[in-house]
Amino acid sequence: MNKEKIIEGLLKLSASITILTTIGILYVLLSESISFFKEVSILEFLTDKEWTPLFVNKHFGILPLVMGTLLTTFIAVSVAIPIGITIAIYLSEYAPNKFRKIVKPLLEILAAVPTIVYGFFALVVVTPFLQSFIPGMSGFNSLSAGIVMGIMIIPYVSSLSEDALRAVPKALRNASFGMGATRLQTAFKVMVPAASSGIIVSIILAFSRAIGETMIVAIAAGQQPRLTLNPLVPIETITAYIVQVSLGDVAHGSLEYKTIFAAGITLFLFTFILNNISYYIRKKFKEQYE
Amino acid sequence: MNNSKVNRIKDKAFNYFGIFCTLIGLVILAFFIGNIFYDGITRIDWDFLTALPSRKAEKAGILTAWVGSIWIVVFTFLIVVPLGIAAGIYLEEYGKKSKLSELLEVNISNLAGVPSVIYGLLGLEIFVRVLGMGNSILAGSFTLALLVLPIVIVSSREALKAVPKSIRLASFALGSSKWQTIWHQVLPASFGGILTGVILAISRAVGETAPLIVIGALAYVPFTPSSPMDEFTVLPIQIFNWISRPQHEFTVNAAAAIIVLLIITFTMNGIAVYFRNKWQKKINW
After folding, report:
1. Which chain B residues contact residue A208 at CB under 8 A?
2. Number of C-alpha atoms within 13 angstroms, CB side, residue B33?
3. pLDDT (mean) for A57-77
4. Which of A16, A138, B229, B270 is at a distance of 20 to 30 A from B129, taking alpha carbons?
5. Residues of B in contact with A150 (CB under 8 A)
6. Which pLDDT score is estimated for B72?
7. Could B87 and A18 be called an inter-chain contact, meaning their C-beta atoms sit closer than 8 Å?
8. B226 and B99 fall within a common domain
9. Neighbouring residues of B270: CB distance < 8 A, sequence distance ≥ 6
10. Taking the domains of chain A in order of start, what are their residue ranges?
11. What pLDDT digit, counting tens, does each position of B211-264 carry?
12. Which residues of chain B lie closer than 8 angstroms to A261, CB-CB?
């Protein structure tokens, strides 16, 4: 009896490590950021249009990094969402079962390839290819990084959306066929609306994944924080900035060192909000169909 | 043309568009990988695998990188496996419906979505500095273990959930305690599913770059590590270092090292898929 209690206690402790991890992340980000904001005003951080903490003339405006992050994210999701949702609809409404069973694990390979490899693709293959017909495109740019990231995110969208479509009761589909609708009409007028919450979750996760992606943008998008919507010039994302500083010799406790935590907490807030929205939609969605 | 004909044509068209979208990503990936093999395969030889890093591209090898990766993988495995499976067991078998498990569930789902670079910041402050591990293999392994912990927990839970209640009830009826039931009946029955999750988690850890850069893993390590407290580099960081150099010879090196990394990743994923299929087929409750 006693042994049982001890084991249960140990198991509980292991599970609680995950809470400690979250507390650790919040503590680390907050404590370093607070000491950062003692030296730099939040107003400057949020409104200054330049980010040059490593230069002599220092500016601490996060906007260029946020813009770079949003730009690559937007390009990535414009690739991943249409393709991913089309794949989901095709696999759940059209594809023969055999084909589906072969293709699904193959698509998962896209998400299993290490991101460093995608970074190499973007820099060494995609950028020169795009440069061949886009004159004036820089060697580092958000377009190739974004496109390659989009390809990587496809399976996140397609597999979650497909799960959502398959969770819709068969009766709905059959009723639609019974009314004489084609597969396409059934897919878009019946299935997609019925599975909309699951599909929205997959879209939100695609955004969150793209915002947090690091190596592809660190390699292919450049290291020049810039407030621009031009996808052809070098930019810098929040994640790439953290990597850039980590590669250099920055003394612990210096203002430069603290900037990566201030950048980190900005990044964390973005993904935290998106993840929570998707979690609550998913919870609600579960109740609907069970 | 009447309406129903138009609709049927649209329906057919979407069928082909669907096939096109399904294959486009795979075709591009296949093209990329073919391209990398073309660039790098001739660079791979015994010397490349056993040489130390060098400033000269043609002399440089990946010995310290792959040895570092193995150290990292072994320690990450040792940390994450007991923790992840134990947490999975607690959530699935013990803590159901309690307030704590609800909190744990939201929390784990959140952790799974935290960008890997943030785990690097956590590791940098907690493991490298506060716990005094320095830029060591141990600090890197703890950081990666926390990063892949949600994967192991979630897959362990799913594997445990798949074991039918009747097995547990039968074991209880024979007088087993809760833990005896879990240890002797439920865990062996869910072994395949748990193993799949662990392999996928480790495969993810092998390919991770950003968190290790943040905790201060080095690009240039002149010797192979001999203890978990040593400084280290790993394959992805070596690749990153070579990609960042402008000379073509280093790009070729990077391509060659990527081939090695991809072989490791694909082998692990292949094994995971194999186990998943085998396990799903064998156990048909």
Report:
1. 113
2. 16
3. 94
4. A16
5. none
6. 94
7. yes
8. yes
9. none
10. 2-39, 63-289
11. 999 998 877 777 888 888 888 889 999 999 999 888 888 889 999 999 999 999
12. 121
Q: Which residues of B touch A15 (CB under 8 A)?
A: 86-87, 90-91, 95, 101, 104, 153
Nearest-CA distance from B260 to chain A in Å? 11
Q: With an 8 Å Cβ cutoff, are A185 and B125 in contact?
A: no
**Residue recorded with tokens 């991809």:** B262
Closest Cα in chain B, distance from residue A60 (Å)? 19
Statement to judge: residues B25 and B116 lie in one domain: no
CA angle, residues B201, A18, A239, in degrees to nearest 5? 65
A236-289 pLDDT, tens digit each: 999 999 999 998 877 888 888 999 999 999 999 999 999 989 888 888 766 555
Place of tokens 């799913």: B158
Residue A290 pLDDT grade (very low, low, confident, very high; cuts 50, 70, 90): very low
Structural domain range at position B79: 47-282
What class has domain A63-289?
mainly alpha
**CB–CB contact B118 A212 (8 Å):** yes
Backbone φ and ψ of A179, nearest 5°: -80, 0
Task: Tell me how far apart the terminal alpha carbons of chain A are, to the nearest angstrom.
Answer: 37
The minimal CB distance from A267 to the residues B17, B83, B118 is found for: B118
Between chains, do B104 and A19 touch, taking CB under 8 Å as contact?
yes
Residue partners of B35: CB distance under 8 A and separation at least 6:
A125
- Shared domain for B188 and B72, answered yes or no, is yes
Residues of chain B with pLDDT under 50: none
Q: What is the CATH number of the domain that holds B94?
A: 1.10.3720.10
Reduce the DSSP state of residue B114 to 3 states and report it: coil
B145 near A267, Cβ under 8 Å?
no
B26: which chain A residues are within 8 Å (Cβ-Cβ)? 106-107, 109-110
pLDDT exceeds 50 at position A167: yes
Beta-bridged to residue A60, according to DSSP, are A51
Cβ-Cβ contacts under 8 Å, B84 against chain A: 14
Locate the chain B residue with the closest alpha carbon to A121. B32
Give the global pTM: 0.92
d(CA B25, nearest CA chain A) in Å: 6
Residue B129, token pair as written in the block: 């500095």
For residue B180, the distance in angstroms to the closest alpha carbon of chain A comes to 9
Per-residue pLDDT, averaged over A168-181, amounts to: 90
The residue in chain B having the minimum alpha-carbon distance to the alpha carbon of residue A205 is B113
| C-alpha radius of gyration, chain A, whole number | 23
Test B90 with A14 for CB contact under 8 angstroms.
yes
Residues 6+ apart with CB under 8 A from B61: B47, B48, B49, B50, B51, B52, B53, B54
Report CA-CA distances (Å) from B177 to A2, B159, B166: 12, 21, 15
